[in-house]
Structure formats: C-alpha cells, structure tokens
Design brief:
462 residues, mainly alpha, Growth Hormone, Chain: A, 15 helices
Length: 462
Amino acid sequence: MDPNTNPLVRQLSSDPTTSNPTVQTDTPVTATVPTINEKSDTTGVAAEGQEAVVDAEDTFPEGGLRAWLVVIGACLCLFPSFGFMVSIGPVQDYLIQHQLRNYSARDVGWIPSVFVYLSLALGIWVGPLFDRYGPRWLAMIGSTGYIVMMFLLAECKVYYQFMLCLGVLGGLCGAMLTTTSLACCAHWFKVRRGLAQGIAMIGSSFGGLTIPLILRETFPKYGYQWSIRILGFTFLGCLVIGNIFLRSRIPPRKNAKVKIISLSIFGDLRFSLLTVSVFCFEIVLFGALGIVPTYATISTDYPPDTGFYLISVMNGVSSVGRLVTGFLSDRFGRFNTLLVSAVIALLSMLVIWLPFGQHNLGALYAFIALFGFMTGCWMALVPACIGQLCRADEFGRYYGTSYFVASLATLVCIPISGELVEMVGAQAMVAFYCAILAVGCLTFAGSRWACLRWKWDWTSKV
C-alpha cells in the first residue's frame, strides 16, 4: 500500500497533537545509524561536511533473525509473568479452600489484585527507565526477583506472607518483565507490530493454558509447596533463555531526563480515550480470570475441577486469538480489529454468559472459548494501538502511563467480583461486567473517531 494514498496516514502525519508522524510503509528502510541529524535538510541530504544520518523511527527491520529472536525472548519472559497473572484464579481458589480458608473470597482476592495491579501500575516507572537505560538490567533484575518470589511463595503460610511475597514482590518484578518485553518488540516492528506483539503475547496465554493444568495435577499429588516449586523451576528455564534473546534496537537515551508521570500526553484525546477503554477492558478481563473458578465452584453444581479447565480453555483459545487478530490487524487496522473484538465479546456476554452460564455447562464452555479468543485480541492489540500514537523510543513511557491508569481496575475488580458473587449472585456480577464493557466499547470508538480527526469513516484503516 502506498502511504501517500492512505488518508489516515496523511491525517496522522499532519496531526499536530501527535509527537511523531505515524507513517507505515510496506518496504522498510534499513540504516545503521539510529540518531537524528538535526542539521540535515528536509530532503534527507546531509549538510556540507556532515555525515548523512537516518532517524531510527523510519528504519524498522520488520523481520530478520535478530528481530524474531527478540519476539521469542519476549514470549518466554511473558510466559511466567503475564502467564501467571492470567492463571492466578486456580491459585486463589486453592488458598480459599486451604491456607486462607478462614478468610472471605473478597479478602483473599486482594492478594492477586495487588499482584496484577503492581505488575501493570509500575510500568509507569519501568517504561521511562527502559527508554533511558534499555532492557538488559531491568530484565535481569526482574527475572531474579521473580524466581525468588516463586520459591518464597512455596513457603508462605499466613495472609501477610502471601500479600508481601506474591502481591508486592511479584508485582514489582512482574512489571519489569512485562513492560520490558513488550517495549523490546516495539523497537523492531512497526508495520508488522500487531503480528509481532501478538506472537509475543502467546507466551502469556500459553502460560495461562499450562499453569492451571500443571497445578491441577500437582496439587493433589505433591501438595502446595512442591507444586509452586515445580512452577518456579519451569519459570527459571524460560527466563534464562528469554534474557539471552531480549535486545533493544534504538540506543538508550541516557542523557534524557526521566519523567515518571507525563500528564502532557493526556492532552492527546486519542490516548486519553484509549486509556479509559483499557481501564474498562482490564476490569472485565482480570475480573473474569480471577473469579471464574470461584464462580464455577460456589455458584453452580458443576464438577469441582471445572474452574481449572475453564481457565485453561480461555487462555488456550486466547493464544489463537492473539495470533490471528494480530495478523488481521496489520491488514485491516489495529483500532478496527480491536473494536470489533470488543463488541463481539460484549454480545457473547449478553447472549450466552448472562442467561445460560449458571445452568448449562456446554454454554459456559462455548462462552469461555469465544470470550478467550476476543480477549486475546485485546491483550495483543492494546500495546500495538498505544505504539501507533507515539514514537518507538517513547513507547515505554506511553505504555507505562496508560497501564498505570488501567491497573487501578485490576486492584478492585477481583474483590468486587467475589463480593458480588457472594452477596447478590453470579448474574448480577455478569451484568456488571456487561455494563463496564459497553462503556469501554464506546470510549474506544471515540478514540478511533479522534484518530480520524472526528470524521467517522467505516472503511479507514486505523
């Protein structure tokens, strides 16, 4: 596609609110010098006596061995970090029935909520550090701390120990791993960023698929301690290889001032509306992931192992959703693909989960599969949509800021879900999620509209 014939490209490249023109080209230009020569003229010809330099923002490899190794490294790092986040439901359910059986579902829900919250919220701190120093030390420190957390988690026995170990230490190290992994992918891909980050995010869905199944087999055979240790050794292997493959392409801006909170970027209405949408998506996604095992155990007469299998099915289908929609988004537009997936997820909640979820196991599995596919699209394309609104060397700051706001949703969604299930029933909880997702769809449509400069066009590739 010729970028000069794409109206969205012309609009975005001339939009004064964006920090950098977002131009896509089917033939990436390669260059070995990743800095801007400010004294070069606008034609790209170097000034007299100076060497020609090309902006790294226009020199994305879009493939090659090194770029795909980075994607594999990110996938391996997201398996234990994001993968454990999206499969935390079975662990929460086990604690409710054993070590923390004297606590309510709401109280126990605060532990995984803090874990997920800090993993996303601290991206506001990790992102600028990545932009300034690169991924090496952030990934190494995060990996070491995460493995320590897993083996300490096996020794926890009382509430405050679980909170400090899983909630606080796990959240801090998880933020380093997730933000660094996704930011590295953004350095190597632009036109194909949806596909690349979709492949990287398969690591998290594969973790969400396998971790519940591992715990399903190991909890009754080996007990809690060795079940968590087995996960710890599995995570260790993934993180060692992942750290070897992770590399940044754009040199760190070591002389730049690190801004932890950049309120000025909210002046871009596209970004602000997108952040509100992500907030709503995270409530629905992590609320469902955290409460589905408890929903299946407490609210219905389904078999006791149903919760393990529901989470596995959701995350297994999610991996397909991330890959397929990541590929489609590069063809039809990332905002377009994500908006369609959110609307389909809302319809499935209204038509399947709300009326049939409590009484029909087949319908519940059908909903979980469809919902997993669509939420896989969310997790793969939200970072790609954020990256479409900024330069690659600013991705860490934009991603961290957006998820700092969105993470507030994860802090309260699991305890609120547990309280709704126990106090007013499962249908009220599902209705609550439907309302939140409807708001998210509206604000995301507004963000897409803002990308088109308030001229709605169904056919534009956004």
